[in-house]
Amino acid sequence: MQRRSILKATAGVAATLAAPRVFAQLWPSGPIRIVVGFPPGGGTDALARVVATKLTQMWNQQVIVETKAGVAGVLAADYVAQQPSDGTTLLMAHINSHALAPSLQPKLNYNVERDFVPIVLVGVTPNLLIANPKEEAKTVKDIVALCRAKPGQVSFGSAGNGSAQHLALESFKLQAKVDAIHVPYKGSGPLLTDLMGGQIQYSFETMTAATPHVKSGKVIAIAQTRTKRAKGHPGVPTMEEQGFPGFEATTWYGLVGPGKLPAPIAQRMNEDVNKVLAMADVQEKLETYGAEDGGGTSEKFAAFIRSEMAKWAKVVKDGNIRIES
Question: What is the CATH number of the domain that holds 161?
Answer without folding.
Answer: 3.40.190.10
